[in-house]
Design a protein that fits this description.
The structure is a single chain. This protein is 23% helix and 37% strand. The chain is of the alpha+beta class and 136 residues long. A 5-stranded antiparallel beta sheet has the order 1-3-4-5-2, covered by helices on one side. It has one domain: Roll (Thiol Ester Dehydrase, Chain A), CATH 3.10.129.10.
């Protein structure tokens, strides 16, 4: 695997984030919080006018992007900061760029700036990830 600082990773796009997926994730995560299931609750709390996607789901989009870009790799660390919400019907794009790539035997340790952005609103998650990937 030949990587250079500044290389962009192939994005992982979710278009759109659906209410159905939020209902499924609510079951999977054991998270019955009504902000994920009922737009009227979101409105009543002053958080917007659409259901809010679960935070762990948003991070999962980033993890999918990393796994797609580094097949056979292992995520050693992932640090993220939540900046905004992802709402039902948003298009979300997980993205990344290489900031460091260091040979580690038959592997390469790759550090990336990562994030999740929503069309029309910008970045909703920012962070870094370290992946130990096969060298070939």
């Amino acid at each position: 695997m030949t990587l250079k600082v500044g290389d962009k990773l192939t994005p992982f796009v979710i278009s759109p984030v659906t209410r159905e997926s939020m209902r499924e994730w609510a079951v999977f995560l054991h998270d019955p919080n009504p902000i994920h299931l009922d737009a009227e609750v979101v409105k009543a709390k002053g958080l917007g006018d659409r259901e809010i996607n679960q935070g762990p789901t948003n991070v999962a989009y980033i993890i999918n992007m990393l796994h797609n870009n580094f097949p056979g790799g292992v995520i050693e660390s992932l640090d993220s900061r939540f900046l905004d919400n992802v709402y039902a019907d948003d298009t979300a794009e997980a993205f990344g760029a290489v900031t460091e790539a260091v040979a580690a035997g038959d592997r390469v340790r790759v550090t990336c700036d990562i994030g999740l952005r929503v069309a029309a609103r910008g970045d909703v998650i920012s962070g870094t990830a370290v992946i130990l990937a096969p060298a070939n």
